[in-house]
Amino acid sequence: MNYQAFVVSETPSGEFISEIKQKDVNELPQGDLLIKVSHSSVNFKDALSFSGNKGVTQSYPHTPGIDAAGEVIESSSKEFPVGCKVLVTGYDLGMNTSGGFGEYIRVPASWVIKRRDDLSPELAMAWGTAGLTAALCVDKLISQSNLSDKPIVVTGSSGGVGSIAIRLLVKLGFDVHGVTSKSSQVEEIKKLDASKVYLLDEFLDDSKRPMLKPEFSAAIDVAGGNVLETLLKKVDYQGAIACCGLVASPKLVTSVFPFILRDISLLGVDSVELPLQRKQAMWDKIANEWSLDNLLTECKIIRKEELSSVMTDMLAGKTSGRYILAH
Ligand SMILES: NC(=O)c1ccc[n+]([C@@H]2O[C@H](COP(=O)([O-])OP(=O)(O)OC[C@H]3O[C@@H](n4cnc5c(N)ncnc54)[C@H](OP(=O)(O)O)[C@@H]3O)[C@@H](O)[C@H]2O)c1
Which atom of ligand 1 is nearest to the CA of 162? Predict the structure, then answer.
């Protein structure tokens, strides 16, 4: 059976090029389930794979797409019969296993979640890995810290994780502040009901002081580097920072003072290798008490032909919000 896929290849001179190719399902890896993908979403990690980042994808040609929503076409699993509506996010999908930017994927049953009827494939992909990660960050902050009544601050506010984290925190009744690197996005982020939005350049601390006035009860950080370094100095006593990304830098230079003088917790968040049961529980929450009105209407729906330019812009920090790929 033939299908179309967005394929990234490495040229002999070490450049990475992409094209939409005709493929055969027999080329897909072994796995319990063959899934016809209706929708995927574009995440920063897909853009890294597209750019030839070997920390994400070791060998090319490769089809990225770490998220997929679709229907089971062939199955050797009793749990997921033919016709079952499913979601796959994370594990190795789109990294070194052909991903959701192809019209078919074949994966182990241990990566798959049944999609509930009240969560359409488009809405599931509007959340996608970015939304799942935002939900995990919020969940960790709520369950593992002792938050004061100061606001919670979210970095990368116009991006996938950041924008969904703001909306979710607002829904849960928190006062939320945003940080953005784009002046053009300040008003858009306020529309998410963030009560204050800082421009990144003004937010960053270059004083070299070990601690600053505590302004926030907690933070969700997608940036790392000097952004996370600044957050650590500005979080209140017994606050916490959920750390999930590295768009600014994977490096962190800090001191022990926020930890030993303010009792702050730095909470790591990973949505990729998360045990399936916990993923399922979080998706149930997303479809129920944490559902977000209008999330889908704010997403951009794109075709395979637009993937290359969207991911190029994403790597340059020029995108905002969520992009859903409709096959
Ligand atoms: N741990 C996990 O399981 C997990 C899961 C998903 C994503 N992530 C990571 O989380 C991060 C965000 O992912 P995403 O899908 O939200 O990406 P995204 O949609 O591209 O959003 C990232 C946002 O970060 C901001 N930004 C870009 N460059 C920046 C810089 N140099 N310094 C500070 N801010 C910058 C931009 O927002 P503004 O324009 O508002 O500044 C951008 O929109 C990535 O590092 C991704 O790999 C981790």
Answer: 16
